[in-house]
Amino acid sequence: MPLPEDTLQTAPCNTYRIGRQTFLLAVCVVVCCTLGLPAFAVTHTATKSHRSTHHSTAVAPRFHWRLSKWNPMFPGSHELLVQQNQELDRAQLPRIYNDADLMRLELAQDLVPVSESEALKISPEIPDIRRYCRPWTRDFLEDFSQAFYGEFHTPIQINSLVRTVEQQHKLRRHNRFAAPEWGDTASTHLTGVTFDMSRRGLTSEQYAWIRTYLLPLKESGMVDPIEERQPVLHVVVFEKYSDRGDGSERWSEANEPTDLPSFAGGSTP
Predict the structure, then answer these.
(1) pLDDT digits (tens, 9 = 90+) for 44-70
(2) Burial code of 20-33, b = ≥16 C-beta within 10 A, e = fewer?
(3) Which helix (H) or strand (E) holds 196?
(4) Which end of the chain has the lower number of beta carbons within 10 A, N or C?
């Protein structure tokens, strides 16, 4: 059946319009793909760059602060612990195994009591039975604390003195900084020559003074300090400290307590 005349006249026009619309749509798609993708890439790159810059400025200074803050004058090491134990072996100082050994050495006055004073405070966590050390270590503690008090009119605090092997074994269960109780790097606290001094509350001036005080004694082999990452100063005092000067300051019978020490103590620190 033949189409009406008006239909024949409008058909080419409709076809042309549809084709033109399709062409324009295709061009738009191509333009969008061509222009849109680089724009997205630039935006994504800029965002990533911004995040990277922000990360470097936020984290790097804090990391740098941590590194610069930890700068010990007296660092510890495996080799140093070995050397200290070798020196204590040469001095024939036994490791104290348990409280029975500890009491025997205290009664024999191979270990002497450390008493509090205006210049020296002892942590209440240390029971009476463990407020002891070797005579030359007590000599050093008295000299050191009095010198510090004379300079700053404030006391130092001791957080640890003599320990036993049994105590050290328990301590290592919850303190990852604690030295072993056996071996060539065993804790020097087990011989009674060592104390830990608290660094909490010290000013930079006070701590600089302490370093200056200890340095010549370390160089002469009398003491061996270690600045630990926890807030304590670990100090080993060798028997050589008793031989300083003319010997007039050495520990003698005049310093011995007149009464037997009390062994009442609290829980293990």
Answers:
(1) 444 444 444 444 334 344 434 343 466
(2) eeeeeeeeeeeeee
(3) strand 194-198
(4) N
Number of structural domains (the chain) is: 2
**Collapsed DSSP state (helix, strand, coil) of residue 267:** coil
Q: Is residue 215 included in any domain, yes or no?
A: yes
Residues 33 and 159 in one domain: no
Asked whether residue 107 falls in the same domain as residue 63, the answer is: no
CA distance 127 to 113: 12
Mean pLDDT across 205-218: 96
By the 8 A CB rule, do 139 and 250 touch? yes
Domain carrying residue 240: 78-255
Beta bridge partners of 158: 122, 197
- Which helix (H) or strand (E) segment holds residue 89: the answer is helix 78-90
Beta-bridge partner residues of 224: 236
Whether 212 and 101 share a structural domain:
yes
Helix, strand, coil percentages in the chain from 3-state DSSP, rounded to 5: 55, 10, 35
